[in-house]
Write a structure and sequence with these properties.
Elements lengths: L35 E5 L6 E3 L7 E8 L9 E8 L7 E7 L4 E6 H8 L8 E9 L5 E2 L23 E6 L12 E8 L9 E8 L2 E5 L8 E7 L4 E3 L3 E5 L5 E6 L4 E3 L4 E10 L4 E12 L2
Amino acid sequence: MKSSLIYSFLLGLLVISGCRKEDNPKVPDFTRVPVPQITLAEGSGNKIPISDPSTYTGTIVVDNYFKHGEAPKQIDVVVIKNGDVLNQKVLQSAITSFPTNITVTGPQFEELFGEPIADGDEFTIGADLTTQDGKKYVAFSTEGITYAPGIFNMPGSSPELTILGADICLYNADDYTEGAYEVVLDEWNDYAPGTTITVTKIDDTHFSFMYAASVNPSPIIIEVDPNTNAATVAPVAYGDYGDGAVWTATSVTGSEVDPCDVSFHLILDQSSPDYGGSVGEYAITFKKKL
């Protein structure tokens, strides 16, 4: 079924398979409603450091789940704190163009709710949607019409998102300068635990290290997203081990730096065409020797 024909139904309506309204007058009319899509832009974290909320800036993308369906007349983006639907705040109202980006900050959440952000605070962001015929569907209802819960189960659906207050450490590029790092774990088995290697700073978001390839070694460069502490290794041919097979490493989800103890953890997909391509994902973890 084409996505433009799939809509969220009002809460409480039943879809009766094989029945037509004319066969049963008690079957209610279905109301087709656009579904909002609220996500964080790439590079925006979902955690606000409570030690310094002023360092947090995020970008929220407001869009429609059904890209080819009828667009809403407008969307008002609202936020609640810790599930309190009686205390809703407006982040931006009367959005009529999609997608639209909204910038939010830590101090903005503090100002909206009139108190400092604490560890474990949850700011849930949703969309009050007005259809082209003027009906309004609210994200966090006390009495009004809200969406059917089934829209949360559609593949890739995101009618709302949550940003957390968290006791986290901030990435500091100066901590990841040249120096000795201890290998904590190496599933690829180039290094035994406790081995010391050198990590080299490239710039404020990049540093590198060398695998123990014996022929034509090249550095593995790590790129850090300071907003999320995610670490990325672009595909790099880092050398071979004397048999002529050139190995390439690429990071996968779960690779990250931990500024709290100045360590980094990479999960690398190891591959070589001489061995049929990818041979699996292997973790390696380093911790700076202070």
